[in-house]
Structures are given as C-alpha cells and as structure tokens.
Amino acid sequence: MKNGYYHMYCPKDVQSRYKLLVFDETNKPFLPLTDFYDDVSRKISKSSALSYLQSLLPFFTWMDRYSNYQGERVTWSYHPEAIRVAVEDYLMNEMACKVREKDSFRFVKLSNKSPNTVHRFLSALKSFYKSLITLRQYMYANPLIDSHAILDDYKVHTEGVRENKPRMPAEAGTEDPLVHRRLTDSYFKLINEEWQPEIIDDPFLYHKVKQAGNQANWSLREKVIARMLFETGARASEVIELTIGDYRSRKSFQEVNTFNKGSHGRRVKFLRFSKDTVKLLFQYINQERKKFDPLGRDFDFLPNDEPMFLTERGTPFNYQAWYPHWNKVITLLDMRLNPHKTRHWFVTISMREIYNISKNDVEIAQRKNELITYMKWKQKDTIEVYEHHFDEESHRNLHDKMLENMTEKEKEYMEQSKRKRTKKTVLNVLEIEKETELDTDIQALLDGLED
C-alpha cells in the first residue's frame, strides 16, 4: 500500500516532546499514533515499539480508504463494535485470514497466503487502544479485548461448590482444583498460531550469514554483533545497546551483563560468547571504534557508561541504524531471516546439544532448566521453581561444547562450499505438526522466546 500513513523522526535541531511523528495520507501530523508510540516506547524497547507502529500504519491507511460500517468510513475513535467490524474486514480482505464467530469473540485462522505479522498486528492494535484509553483519548472499552472472557475467568476463580457462596481456599479441600490454562482476553483469537514455534534446524546457518557478511564487506562492528546474536541467543537490542561497563562487570572475559525485555534497562541477565568473538570485539573497540570515538579512546580509557558500539558519527549505535546492514546480507543470501530468528536457532542448537551430551533424563531436565534460566524465559512460575538450581559454571561447560561444535560445523560448511555451489540459500524451518513431534518442554521454551 503506497502513499499511506508514514512516520518520521524528529530532526535533532527541532525541539519537540515527540521523538517520532506520524503523518496521515494528506501529510498532516496524526497525533493518536504519535502519542501511542511516545507512550509505548517508554514501556517496551524502542525496536518493539517501532515494530508495533509499523504494523499499524497499513491498517490506518486501509481504514481511511476502504473501511465500512453502516455506510460510513470507520475512524480510530469509533465505538468498539465499529472498530471490530473494520478489523475483521481487514483480517479477511488484506491479511487473507478466515474469521469465525464464537460466543463473545472471534476465531482467526491463518491461510497459506496470510503474512507472518497477523499476531503482531493484533497485539499492536490492542496496545494502541490500551495507550489511548490511558491517555484519555479513547472514551470506550478496548475493542480488542473480550470483556466476557475476563468476567467468565473471574467467576471460575471465585465461585465455589456452595451456591451463592465464595470459593473456599485450596487448603480446605472442599473445592475442585483450578485448572490453570493459557487464556487470552483478546477478542480476536488466533487458533492456528498458538504453540507453533519455528524450529530452525540448520547447523550451517550461522556460518552462511558470516560468510555473506564477508562478501558484503561488513565492518568489524557488524561482524561482532552478528556473532553475538548467534552465539548468545540474545535479542538484537540486548547486544546493540551494550555498554563498556556491561563487559567489565562480569568475572569471565567471555561474558557481558545486559537487560531483558521488560527489565526497563536493569541488567538482569548475562550473555556468553566464544573466545574468537572476544578477540574480534577488542579489535573493534581498540581500532575501528577508536577512530569514531570523539576522544579517540581505546578500551582501557573508556568509562563504564560509554556505548560499546558507535556510529561513524561517534553517536551510540541503535537498532534502526543496524538493521539495514543486516538486511543487506540477508538479501544477498536470498533468505527470509529476521534477527529474532537467531534466538530460535540458538535454542534449537542448544537443545540438540543437551540431548547429545546428557547421559540420562535427570541430566536432560537439569540442563533444560539451566538454559531456560539463561534465556530469562518469561514464564515466571516455571523459572522461579528452578532458579536456585541454576549453576552458571555448568552452563559455561555446556556452552563451550556448543561453541566448539559450531566451529567444527563452520569448517565442514566451508569444505562443502568448495565442493558444491548452490544457487539459493534456503532456510530450513521444520513444520512441527507435520514432520516431527517435539518434546513439550522444548516447545514451551521456544514459545516463550516471543516474550
């Protein structure tokens, strides 16, 4: 969809309360989406906030052009019923989804023509109305929330076996135990996306990207970031926004502290990478980075709060500046690989390694729990049970073995590349339901990666 809603960053020489402005089709500032980004970027990472915004821009353009509720165009401020009708039409006509009525909500089923952004779009729109309600700009209930589901869930957790009496505590032993299910309060519920993570089981993927990076003349900065993504399982922002102090704060020279999604910048987890990446990192800091540092400092003279990665202007590097470098290489590979899939790849390879080196089920379970905690999976009730069992040293041993195997796979891949040249690189994504039965613990772990 061309010439629709778009966004622009506020120029540095212009004073404004907004760092980003959204414009409609007539090039007029559109404050609802501008205020939404401003609000949500304070609560989640800027890259996630931008991803939400970008998934909403086509919808707002479509609403202005094609929406219809009782003969009128729908705007964002209409009552919930009109918004739901517009969203349902958009899902069916623009995203090739099948929508089916069910009780007080709608089931949404993806087709083979549906984009992989349906879930993000629905989450973003739900977040948009949550923000606008908080900002007192939308005067109704959130149209993306099924209020009946919330009420029914409340009744289940409060009504007991005695008529018109509250539920007795579990210790009383008189009530049937509650079944804890993964419920959603969304009005539009995706029924064929739940519990279907992507399992990227290509052992050569890491080395394909590194080789393509060399062909694209990646700088040391891009090489280090890419290596860290594959070797640590981190989100891109968790690597790109590292500081010098994050590295100095760890006792191991192969580790850094970093923030987690939802930690609001607090360093709550660590990342671990190979010795070769450490060498490349210091080569970058003391050579390439030093050239762009305003004071020409190397590692020993950099204060802890200095960003690890800089732009060529000497300013802190960020996701928006980094992504074009990544996309250039992925385009060169003729592959669809967004940066978050490196996280899925890391977990898949790690789980394979766990099964390869574990001697029994006890060791498998222990190493799964160590990996879950390292990844800071957001299922708190699962993580907290095993938190005290996690031994960083044990994970280091496992991680070293995984890095050794990655090095061996690189050598094997390079040998194969010499013998056989392929025209197109294909990302090997397993269809879980069709091709393999996955351990439920692994599947739950991979689902948590989207958090």
Automatic annotation (TrEMBL):
PROSITE patterns: CB, TYR_RECOMBINASE. The lineage of its organism: Bacteria, Bacillati, Bacillota, Bacilli, Bacillales. Residues 195-400 form the Tyr recombinase domain. One of its GO terms (biological process) is DNA integration. InterPro entries: CB, DNA_brk_join_enz, Integrase-like_cat_sf, Integrase_catalytic, Integrase_recombinase_N, Tyrosine_recombinase_XerCD. Keywords: DNA recombination, DNA-binding. This is Site-specific tyrosine recombinase XerC. Belongs to the 'phage' integrase family. It comes from Aneurinibacillus soli. One of its GO terms (molecular function) is DNA binding. Residues 27-133 form the Core-binding (CB) domain. It holds the Pfam family Phage_integrase.
